[in-house]
């Protein structure tokens, strides 16, 4: 990539979806540190958190940052996000399709509405981000980097999270197909597959397990540490470090991969 931005010190422009909290927020901060201008996205109810993050970035760095709220499951919203970023920040070089949701339930208790909602956000949302970002990158003619959110649940099915696991298996397939279609344009497409990352998202899994097993809040999360080689849970920083590399020029020969980042719990 050789972004020709109005700000010559910028490494380019990145969109990060689902960036109001957790892994998305961590990735946004890391890419800013790396020298990217960023557009941070989440759903409208999280506007205040987006505004706070924009303020944090612009007050502490020289990088540009804008909030682009919207629902990634809606074609018009994602198109609007991409168009606004290209118009206001001068282009698009990196798309991080991070937004995702989960439900913890046995298959027998999972409703059709829950199934459809997870696929709408996790799969259709990733598809729209990949497609519309790639369209913009192809028009620019300078290549790009697209990165999606897989999971260890997309490498091995998880009981009582069948719907979530299914969406993440779908992200793996989409990533592999997109990598083959977009490689000729200088666009790489990869995904990160986190394990146990201590975020609000993991906290929702913890709440389900605590209620089911009669545990105190946080006890289930603590037990996860003994299931991985390094003996600890991860933080958004670990995922952001991988993303930082995947969007760099040095990663030009890596594409179509969903890379596990879990401290050595699942080996691929």
Describe the protein's architecture and organization.
- The protein has helices spanning 22-34, 47-60, 75-89, 112-140, 162-182, 200-213, 219-223, 236-246; strands at residues 13-16, 37-40, 65-67, 94-97, 144-149, 187-194, 258-261.
- It has 268 residues and is α/β, with parallel strands linked by helices.
- It has 2 domains: 13-195 and 236-257, NAD(P)-binding Rossmann-like Domain (Rossmann fold, 3-Layer(aba) Sandwich), CATH 3.40.50; 198-233, no CATH class.
- Strands 3-2-1-4-5-6-7 form a 7-stranded parallel β-sheet, with helices on both faces.
- Helix 2 (47-60) links the parallel strand 2 and strand 3.
- The radius of gyration is 18 Å and the shape is globular.
- The two termini are 30 Å apart.
List the keywords:
Rossmann fold; 2 domains; about 10% strand; seven-stranded parallel sheet; 8 helices; about 270 residues; alpha/beta
Indicate the topology.
Elements: E1 13-16, H1 22-34, E2 37-40, H2 47-60, E3 65-67, H3 75-89, E4 94-97, H4 112-140, E5 144-149, H5 162-182, E6 187-194, H6 200-213, H7 219-223, H8 236-246, E7 258-261
Parallel strand pairs: 1-2, 1-4, 2-3, 4-5, 5-6, 6-7
Helix pairs in contact: 1-8, 3-4, 4-5
């Amino acid at each position: 990539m050789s972004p020709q931005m109005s700000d010559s010190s910028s490494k380019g422009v990145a969109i990060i979806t689902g960036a109001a909290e957790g892994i998305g927020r961590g990735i946004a901060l890391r890419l800013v540190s790396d020298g990217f201008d960023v557009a941070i996205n989440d759903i409208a109810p999280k506007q205040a958190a987006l505004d706070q993050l924009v303020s944090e970035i612009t007050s502490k760095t020289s990088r540009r940052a804008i909030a682009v709220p919207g629902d990634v499951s809606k074609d018009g919203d994602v198109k609007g996000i991409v168009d606004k970023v290209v118009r206001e920040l001068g282009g698009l070089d990196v798309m991080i399709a991070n937004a995702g949701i989960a439900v913890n339930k046995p298959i027998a208790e999972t409703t059709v509405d829950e199934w459809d909602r997870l696929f709408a956000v996790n799969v259709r949302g990733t598809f729209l981000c990949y497609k519309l970002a790639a369209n913009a990158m192809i028009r620019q003619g300078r290549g790009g980097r697209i990165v999606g959110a897989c999971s260890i649940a997309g490498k091995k099915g998880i009981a009582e999270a069948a719907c979530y696991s299914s969406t993440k298996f779908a992200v793996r397939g989409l990533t592999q197909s997109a990598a083959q279609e977009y490689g000729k344009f200088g666009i790489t497409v990869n995904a990160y597959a986190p394990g146990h990352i201590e975020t609000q998202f993991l906290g929702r899994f913890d709440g389900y397990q605590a209620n089911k097993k009669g545990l105190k809040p946080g006890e289930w999360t603590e037990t996860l540490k003994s299931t991985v080689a390094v003996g600890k849970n991860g933080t958004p920083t670990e995922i952001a470090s991988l993303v930082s590399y995947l969007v760099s020029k040095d990663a030009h020969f890596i594409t179509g991969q969903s890379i596990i980042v879990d401290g050595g719990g699942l080996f691929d």
